[in-house]
Structure to design on (304 residues):
C-alpha cells in the first residue's frame, strides 16, 4: 500500500516564517502608506542627506539630496542603460533618477502591490511613467535575468530581509548585476549582535524593528561578508549618521504634529500606525547609541 507523503514539519515551518514576515511588511505599508505623505510630499520614504550650506530645516530638499547621493554613487557612464531599484516604495528615488537620466531605464520592485499602483499614479502625474517601470515582486526572488543590470541600489529596504547578513537579498542583488558594475546599499546598521543589547538600547531596538516590520537591521560586518561571498569586491562602508541627523531630529516633531492633527480630525489610528509612529519617535534615541548603531552607505562592484 502506498503511504501518503506527510509534510515535513521543519520545512513547513521554514517556509511559513518568511511568508508571515512578508505579510507583516505588506500590512505595514498598506496601513501606513499615505502617512508617509506627512514626512515627504514627494513620498520619499527615507532620511535626508545634509551638506553645508543646505538649509537644515528644508526637509524635502535633504530627502531628494539622499536620492542624488545614491544616484551619484552608482558611478554610471554614458554606456550604462539599465538600473534596478530594489525596494522602491512609492518610487520617489526612481522619479529623481528618471529626471536626472532621461536616456536610461529604471525598473523598481516592491513587494507591496498598493505601492506599485500608487507609485504608477505619482509617476503619471509627474509625466515620468514612460521612463519608469515598476514591478510587484520579491527582491529575494528577482524576476530579472542574471547579469542584466548596469547598476542596482537599495535605499532603506535591505533591512526588511530576514537575517543580520541579509544574504537572500544580497545573493539576488549580485546575481542580476553585471560583472564590473556597481551597487549601492543605504540603511540603518547594527555594529554588534542585537542579542547583546541591554536596557534602553534593547527597548528602542526591539520596539523599532517591530513597529517598522523589520526582522532586524543589517549587521555591518555580516552584510559585507555576504557581499564578498557573492562576488563583491572594492567594498566601502561610509558612516552617514551625521549627514542624516538633521532630518532624524525632525522626526519626533513631525510625529507629534501628525498625532495632534489626527486627534483634531477625530481619526482613530490602528496598532500598526501607532507602532510606526512610536518607531519614528525612538529612531533618534537609537541613533545616539553610536557604538551599536549607524546609518551607512555600502558600495562596491561585482567581480569580473
Ligand atoms: C522604507 S521603504 C523605502 C522605499 C524607497 N526605497 C524610498 O527610499 O523611498 C522600504 C521598501 O522596501 C520594500 N520591500 C520590503 N521587503 C521587500 C521584498 N522582499 N521585496 C521587494 N521589496 C521589498 C517595501 O515594500 C518598501 O517599498
Amino acid at each position: 500500500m502506498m503511504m501518503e507523503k506527510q509534510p515535513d514539519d521543519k520545512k513547513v515551518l521554514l517556509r511559513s516564517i518568511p511568508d508571515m514576515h512578508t505579510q507583516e511588511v505588506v500590512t505595514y505599508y498598506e496601513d501606513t502608506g499615505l502617512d508617509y505623505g506627512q514626512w515627504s510630499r514627494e513620498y520619499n520614504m527615507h532620511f535626508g542627506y545634509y551638506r553645508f550650506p543646505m538649509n537644515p530645516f528644508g526637509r524635502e530638499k535633504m530627502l531628494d539630496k539622499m536620492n542624488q547621493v545614491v544616484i551619484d554613487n552608482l558611478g554610471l557612464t554614458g554606456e550604462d542603460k539599465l538600473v534596478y531599484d530594489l525596494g522602491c516604495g512609492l518610487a520617489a528615488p526612481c522619479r529623481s533618477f528618471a529626471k536626472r537620466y532621461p536616456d536610461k531605464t529604471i525598473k523598481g520592485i516592491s513587494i507591496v502591490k498598493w505601492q506599485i499602483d500608487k507609485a504608477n499614479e505619482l509617476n503619471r502625474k509627474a509625466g515620468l511613467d514612460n521612463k519608469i517601470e515598476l514591478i510587484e515582486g520579491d527582491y529575494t526572488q528577482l524576476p530579472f535575468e542574471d547579469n542584466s543590470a548596469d547598476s542596482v541600489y537599495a535605499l532603506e529596504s535591505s533591512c526588511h530581509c530576514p537575517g543580520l547578513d541579509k544574504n537572500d537579498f544580497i545573493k539576488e542583488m549580485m546575481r542580476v548585476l553585471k560583472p564590473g558594475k556597481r551597487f549601492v546599499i543605504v540603511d540603518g546598521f547594527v555594529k554588534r549582535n542585537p542579542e547583546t543589547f541591554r536596557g534602553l538600547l534593547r527597548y528602542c531596538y526591539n520596539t523599532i524593528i517591530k513597529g517598522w516590520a523589520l526582522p532586524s537591521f543589517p549587521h555591518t560586518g555580516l552584510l559585507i561578508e555576504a557581499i564578498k561571498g557573492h562576488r563583491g569586491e572594492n567594498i566601502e562602508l561610509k558612516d552617514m549618521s551625521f549627514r542624516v541627523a538633521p532630518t532624524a531630529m525632525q522626526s519626533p516633531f513631525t510625529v507629534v504634529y501628525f498625532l495632534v492633527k489626527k486627534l483634531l480630525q477625530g481619526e482613530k489610528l490602528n496598532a500598526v500606525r501607532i507602532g510606526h509612529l512610536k518607531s519614528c519617535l525612538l529612531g533618534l534615541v537609537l541613533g545616539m547609541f553610536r557604538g551599536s548603531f549607524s546609518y551607512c552607505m555600502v558600495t562596491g562592484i561585482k567581480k569580473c
Remarks:
- The two ends are 55 Å apart (CA to CA).
- The CA atoms of residues 3 and 142 lie 37 Å apart.
- The first helix runs from residue 9 to 32.
- DSSP finds ten helices and seven strands in the chain.
